[in-house]
Known about the structure:
Number of helices: 16
Oligomer: single chain
Strand content: 15-25%
Helix content: 40-55%
Shape: elongated
Radius of gyration: 25 Å
Order of helices and strands: HHHHHHHHHHHEEEEEHEEHEHEEEHEHE
Distance between the termini: 38 Å
Strand order of the largest sheet: 9-8-7-12-13
Amino acid sequence: MTQTATPPRQVIRPRIAARAGLFTFLGVNVVAVTALFFAAGPSDNVLLGIGRFAGLYGALFMAFQLLLVARLPWLDRRLGMDRLTTWHRWTGFGLLWTLLAHAVFIVFGYGQVEGAAPLDELVQLANTTEGVLRAIVAFVLILVVGGASARFARRRLAYETWHFIHLYTYAAVVLAFTHQIGVGQSFTSSPLARAYWWAMWGGALGAVLAGRVVLPLWRNLRHQLKVVAVVPESRDVVSVYMSGRHLDRIPARAGQFFLWRFMTRDRWWQANPFSLSAAPDGRFLRLTAKALGDGSSSLRSLPVGTRVFAEGPYGAFTTIHQQRPNALLVAGGVGITPIRALLEDIAGHVVVLYRVGSDRDAVLLPELHRLAKARGAAVHVLSGPSNARGGLGPLLGAENLAALVPDAADRDVFVCGPPGMTTAVLRSLRELRVPASQVHAERFSLAA
């Protein structure tokens, strides 16, 4: 039976609205912080004035960083965790430079006023001024977290180690806030300034508490997930089925992922991101994973009945962003898992391109063919090494894509796979002049 293409509702607006709302929120607060700075009165020393100004922006950057990683469902569904995390990383650069400027200008400013060398002045401030020592500790913690988040370090750290180091950010936030309470001229200058900063810090920390602690705890208490089946799909790929209570009320969509903790003695402390490999049906949740690391390779031995703590759903890789009546789904390797789920849920005529190293690596292929037959979709398996070429060039090159899907520019395109493959596909789509607003990508990597 062929599924009739029905135009999806126009839903690009929620993504634009979320992005505009986020940047408007930041812009309004930039104006507010600037106004509070000038309302506090001029500084006697230019260097001190610059230092205080930089410190206020550092506090604002820190609060905004917390908001970006609070995992608030409204933002995550519209923008996606990958985009929010990228903005969080770039905001971190702004935080680092503003705090560095704050420290340098304050120390040199007071040194100029008191006729002291910068290092002597720093020691003097730490010993005699309330909150300065706490600020120094906070800055060191931020440097440590920033160093651990650098790409070269991130590749070498286990996810759990990186996550543990990142928790020091919250200690830095508390120390920085107490420093601001103690000596911040803008904070102490008026009741309005105090109310603003209390609201800013309270809102940022409250968002983190709600999104990362309260909501996951509440959902897991409500749904009480447990493993009901573990099914090998191939020699190194396994599917895990989970059931629980009121699964029809989990706000999950095809294409999203969870952070899964399997509550066994040797795994409870590991949280691994795996996408749903089947659209939620109200009875089961299913993930499918390849043995790439310690977390995924041990799934095959999970006992049935194991309790599961799941954080999510997360991700904007869903049909909520579909604009065109038809779609092209492109998967590489284990990136087939959210693509297979989307095939159940997406509107209109669908073409699936599945890039694998060899035919035996094409997991879930029988399911793809069954779903494609039921809805009149087309599935093309493109197999071969990464440098494989066909008669029209690279298998995922622009010419080959145009031959396989001549109307690609009139479709929404969903791409999920390893970073290298995803980059190549996005380049080909640009060559084919597929509008950027119709391209939706999710990158799979061990650093996810």
